[in-house]
């Protein structure tokens, strides 16, 4: 028993000394497993390979990364006994065999997941590329072995002279780091050289960095960038651990101390550019101004809210709006985009709104919405990951390198913006998106050239919602009570902002893009940090230290911003006695299907014997906060819209003598179809079943959060969008939010240029027992409606609501 305990302690000691390399190898082993499981939404996109060069680079990077980790372990094998008093010689044979097996399994697992995540039609080509790349990596490792043998002689040249200088000044005088040139002579400052293995590790790391810097950013595959990140971090941390472990200083303490030191530089933070606005700059259009102009031009009023959900939400937003344009034109009602007056987006929905508004503004008469959908679906993961490795790792390690103005905004967030602009430029054949600013697009919104936009973001320090809008709500005076929990960007900052940056701030979910705070820019991409009171012109009420992140933290549907904007427009026009729109259609876009029904909820389940224990008691507060946030956001948007609709319906009926029951707010919610469970009668063959299991299918319930969509996922989004729009045009879904929402569908709107459609029969109401409560809910069955109903609504000669005599 004593021998087993002693051997176990030696193993733990060895694993501790090689912990950095072991963690790197464990990351390589777990990354493909997590990509197919819990981290599928964040990691799986990095494994999608589509070209032969991409597969070559992945195979090469896998072997090189494993070799880098093995070299770090070898340093402990060679010097652990004299540097750390660790008996590594007795453990070396077994550990080497275990490392080789685990490293081989890690390489194979990553290759298998690359094939599983990629298009199955490309498997033969990708397999050849992976094998060829791995062979190149093996050849490179063999070449590095020869270089290592030549470096033995080099240790007695200029590296030894540098080392002698360091030792003479009291540095590097440590066993395992230096050794005697001539072992027969005593120690002296001139009789020292670098110990075996160190120069080879440095050469290894230098070679990796040089290869990465030489190869073009567009060629580096995202997975290869992640592997390079593992290499660089493991080299840095293992070198620090090799020095600190000798003196029994914890590695984490060294990391915390260094990070604290780098925080002394303001440049270690992340910034986004704001452009100071001149006092003489024209005021941005108000919601009432845009709605009134739309009424004057007899345009219907369509408000769109689009929920967050990464690149899936961006692709869903643009594709649904494109299908509405196409299918309504085929039904005889062209020009749907002319009716869209506002899009309120959150996270990925803001990115989709950005591409849609860009396409509409470039050619208002016939916008190229298909390319807008393709641009929103195009991958930008490579730029984000390369920015993380090339820019942000250097910023975190050496922030003093970013003190120049042109480097201040140079991070993965800016790289993501460049990728969005480049994707649009490649599809349209010309650029321009990178020059779009809030002020320029605001002028277009007032001219009804493109829709007004609201990009919703969240402030880290206060938890407030920041609305970055081309048509902001009216500013509040300092003597009035401030809005609770939210504010307009133009209220807090007297500045303009690039539209790409505004969309990125709204879509800043963890790790992919950084939390950033504002810094003054000269309009050419250069940053300028001004301390003290010099910022007063841009930051009159503060906020220069506020970091913006994803808008989904506050509210994920975009409905709050849309209804606040619409409410101010209608209230302003109503108080002024102006005309109001005859109807308003609110289109709610959600990129996720409704969750399938849980059969377990239909029958009582005895959970009395289930035990959670003390751990659950500790975790329950955090779990409650997380689940309440998700459930409350899901319910809040619908309740808010129902109350808003009821309020304006009653006000119009009382003040404007609107006929009772005639709808004012029409609500349409477009989301993908709920997936059906697999059938038991499966007629596929064994090989086909294995191929279908091996290939990871697209699943819209699991949104990619990595700014990358696989071809199968793009195809599924496109087909789901076509089906959702087609179904909406044929059957109108009436949401069971309030009783008046059901009554609103009984009287279709009338116009003068088209015959009145045949009124649908009153909707049938049937009780549906909710298993989660004792009460019953009522669901209105969708009725088949004539396409002329929607044609009537979108007609450019839609009526107006005028104030009744004697009413304000």
UniProtKB/TrEMBL annotation:
A GO BP term here is: lipid metabolic process
Q: Which Pfam families match?
A: Patatin (PF01734)
Record's keyword annotation contains Lipid metabolism: yes
> Which Gene3D superfamilies does this one have?
Cytosolic phospholipase A2 catalytic domain
Record-annotated membrane-spanning stretches = 12-31, 51-70, 98-117, 123-144, 193-214, 220-244
According to the entry, every stretch annotated as the PNPLA domain falls at: 307-557
Give UniProt keywords alphabetically: Lipid metabolism, Membrane, Transmembrane, Transmembrane helix
Q: What is the name attached to this protein's record?
A: PNPLA domain-containing protein
Origin species, per record, is Brevifollis gellanilyticus
